[in-house]
């Protein structure tokens, strides 16, 4: 058990022992409810509530921390705090209890009027306090406003839930969390420090027509806290009244660059009077207005002085035909151009690929050969060809008559036969058949 819880429970009065059935029923009422602000995250997106920056004020520096430190109340230091978002944290009072401590915000936008000490700042981030391990109160997007008199307020988007009494859950909405007067605002160069204690004593909370409480936080806040823990925000006469009061808060802001003051325009001349210095120039602009420029640099628009465009004029009468022009001279013929030079011989082309093999030709007719050679009874040479043709007999000169060698006679005969045959194709065959017989 945490130290803070021991402190809380030690001061509670003794409670009657509940029957087991009643205790079980109370524990089974409902699971922990999701805080209302989580359910409505889409509908309660933080809209800027900081007042519009007035002329002459200085914006907060973008890259510097803008710090709000506030423990809310002594009682709130005992509640478990969970933070969400950028630039929000809990500063623990006791290192052994890191979830119990004061709230610290550092990311904000806004402005400060260094002359009047008025200011408006809005922080981002959310803190949710859990009370007695059950009920929750959430504060989101705190905003601070201080006027030139030192009076002001702190607002935030507040929601609250009770898992045992879901009908009493409070939806998230922006309410006044604290009001104060006589805030101490000190400007030291680029640093602004603000401190104040919120009002409590004498702030009446009226619960209904019959019941009211003399000391309280702002009514808007109290009414948006679930009923079971609402009494922690007003004086109900309990023994813990000193823990309910709002604690002082401290703010440290860093200023950015003050915007340059725009030049004030020169006062316009009174109606019917010409500006001092006389007219320097007069011109008509493209809209047809007469613009006067005076020697002091001011101008005056005297209104439109150009009338509407006139109607188009009628077409004129056609003129007489002109005389024919003289014939132009013939241009001299151009000279022949010089013969062009012969071009250089081109390089031999690469050898072509071998052509495909041709188809086989038809078979030729059978040739005629010598079938036989004989000497007839008259001593004549008879040649019979292979086709059956018999050549005319040839006289064979005898060796005795011619005085020649038999080989010479045969050669003469072969020549005669070759002539008859039209070629020498069969001479070898004839010689082969005759010479051995001689």
UniProtKB/TrEMBL annotation:
Residues 1-38 form the signal peptide. The chain crosses the membrane at residues 409-435. Residues 259-282, 301-371 are annotated as: Disordered. It comes from the Bacteria. This is HtaA domain-containing protein. Residues 301-345 have a biased composition (Basic and acidic residues). Keywords: Membrane, Signal, Transmembrane, Transmembrane helix. The keyword Signal applies. The keyword Nucleotide-binding does not apply. Residues 353-362 have a biased composition (Low complexity). Residues 97-193 form the Htaa domain.
């Amino acid at each position: 058990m945490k130290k803070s819880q021991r402190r809380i429970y030690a001061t509670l009065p003794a409670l009657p022992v509940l029957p087991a059935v009643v205790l079980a029923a109370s524990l089974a009422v409902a699971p922990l409810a999701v805080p209302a602000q989580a359910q409505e995250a889409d509908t309660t997106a933080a809209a800027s509530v900081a007042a519009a920056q007035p002329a002459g004020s200085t914006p907060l520096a973008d890259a510097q921390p803008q710090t709000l430190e506030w423990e809310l109340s002594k009682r709130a230091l005992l509640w478990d705090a969970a933070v969400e978002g950028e630039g929000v944290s809990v500063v623990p009072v006791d290192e052994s209890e890191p979830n119990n401590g004061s709230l610290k915000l550092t990311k904000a936008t806004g402005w400060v009027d260094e002359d009047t000490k008025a200011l408006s700042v809005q922080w981002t981030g959310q803190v949710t306090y859990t009370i007695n391990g059950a009920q929750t109160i959430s504060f989101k997007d705190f905003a601070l406003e201080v006027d030139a008199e030192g009076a002001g307020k702190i607002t935030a988007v507040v929601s609250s839930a009770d898992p045992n009494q879901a009908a009493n859950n409070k939806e998230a909405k922006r309410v006044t969390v604290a009001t104060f007067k006589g805030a101490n605002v000190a400007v030291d160069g680029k640093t602004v420090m603000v401190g104040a204690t919120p009002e409590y004593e004498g702030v009446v909370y009226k619960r209904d027509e019959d019941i009211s409480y003399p000391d309280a936080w702002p009514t808007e806040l109290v009414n948006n806290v679930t009923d079971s823990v609402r009494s922690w925000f007003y004086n109900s006469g309990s023994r813990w009244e000193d823990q309910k009061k709002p604690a002082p808060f401290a703010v440290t802001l860093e200023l950015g660059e003050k915007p340059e003051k725009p030049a004030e325009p020169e006062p316009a001349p009174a109606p019917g009077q010409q500006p001092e210095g006389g007219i320097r120039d007069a011109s008509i602009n493209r809209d047809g207005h007469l613009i006067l420029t005076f020697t002091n640099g001011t101008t005056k628009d005297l209104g439109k002085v150009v009338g509407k465009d006139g109607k188009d004029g009628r077409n004129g009468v056609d003129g007489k035909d002109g005389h024919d022009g003289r014939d132009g001279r013939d241009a001299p013929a151009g000279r022949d151009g010089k013969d062009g030079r012969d071009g250089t011989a081109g390089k031999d082309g690469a050898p072509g690929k071998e052509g495909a093999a041709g188809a086989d030709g038809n078979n030729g007719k059978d040739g005629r050969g010598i079938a036989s050679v004989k000497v007839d009874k008259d001593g004549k040479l008879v040649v019979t060809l292979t086709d059956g043709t018999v050549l005319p007999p040839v006289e064979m000169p005898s060796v005795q008559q011619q005085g020649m060698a038999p080989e010479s006679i045969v050669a003469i005969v072969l020549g005669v036969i070759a002539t008859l045959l039209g070629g020498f194709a069969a001479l070898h065959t004839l010689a082969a058949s005759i010479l051995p017989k001689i």
